[in-house]
Amino acid sequence: MKRYLDDRVRSDLAQKMVFLTGPRQVGKTTLSQQLIGEQGGQYLNYDVAADRSLIVNQRWSPQAPLLVLDEIHKMPKWKAWLKGVVDGKPAAQQVLVTGSARLDAFRQGGESLAGRFFGIRLHPISVREWCEQGGAPPDAALTHLLARGGFPEPCLADTAEQAERWRRQYFDGLVRDDVLEFSRIQEVSAIRLFAQMLRSRVGSPLSLASMARDLGVSPVTLKKYLDILEALFIVFVVRPWHDNIARSVLQAPKVYFYDTGLVEGDEGIRFENLVATALLKQVQWQYDIQGKETGLHYIRTKDGAEVDFALSEKMQLTHLVECKLSDEKPHRALSRFALQHPNAQASQVVRNLRHGYTLGELKVCRADVFLNALLA
Questions:
Q1: What sign does the dihedral 318-310-259-191 (CA atoms) show?
Q2: Per-domain boundaries in the chain
Q3: Is the pLDDT of residue 108 over 50?
Q4: Tens of pLDDT along 273-309?
Q5: What's the pLDDT score for residue 244?
Q6: 330 secondary structure, DSSP code
Q7: Helix 208-215 / helix 219-231 crossing angle, nearest 10 deg
Q8: How far apart are CA 51 and CA 69, in angstroms?
Q9: DSSP 252
């Protein structure tokens, strides 16, 4: 299946090294193999013992048009090593580095790679991507993704049973194996339990202090666990909007899963999670590809008024988005914030709606139409 980033990665490789990151099994290796199939090259994975030896000793073919290095952030002093590789490689050789941990999670310290690479994040399949690649109408695409999630294997599986078998193995493997990159083996069970608890808390402001008491750990430790799950692209955090960034960070975050299929809750919660993944994909596309300073937030005031999502650019709100399963009556808080932020497009995104309409500054729109109109 052709992915939405194929052409962009291909064009960026002609200019610089490319770092392609994203959740495990989201399609990074498939994309890499497709590029090698087109232009020739060599794929080496640091997790494979035979490949690790070739990587450490730099014994790949200097004639390979494309060199793909997977999971090399696990190698000690990998940045200094990679800097030497890039500076000494043949001019015609392209380098693609892939990994299933967030780049900024292992970027600290050591040699700088500034100016030597483009960073791109690969996301699960969205409504727009499923429509473009599979030819499905938007409503059918939305229904399919709500049932299967957007990761390629369960999304393309022949049966729902196959998709669920993949998901069970995927979640267990992530927590068992990948967490050890960032934590001690003694903490794996606690992190697994924390991740399981988060599955039923999607879309609600988190009280880490309360959850820490339930787990018998300190809030500081639980914050570290959340950072690990976020660094591994298992969950992503949406923080409340505030033009003062420090105040925003201190307020309760909301957590969503990259795989909507992992969410435990009713259809409304799963729908909100799917919208969250689509909006994150949009803002990170704008950041990685278009160079815009974009962000994803939510709005909540002291009097309890809340809007599910708010998009920003250069610390200015650009969009307000409220998710509803069937309620087409204008959401009071959304109408209120639309008046307060007239430059932000306010949309009430309804899953079960026959016809959209506009009321003042507020648009009530069908979810499938809204999601299919996003950039990626």
A1: positive
A2: 6-121, 127-372
A3: no
A4: 999 999 999 999 999 999 999 999 999 988 889 999 9
A5: 58
A6: P
A7: 100
A8: 10
A9: P
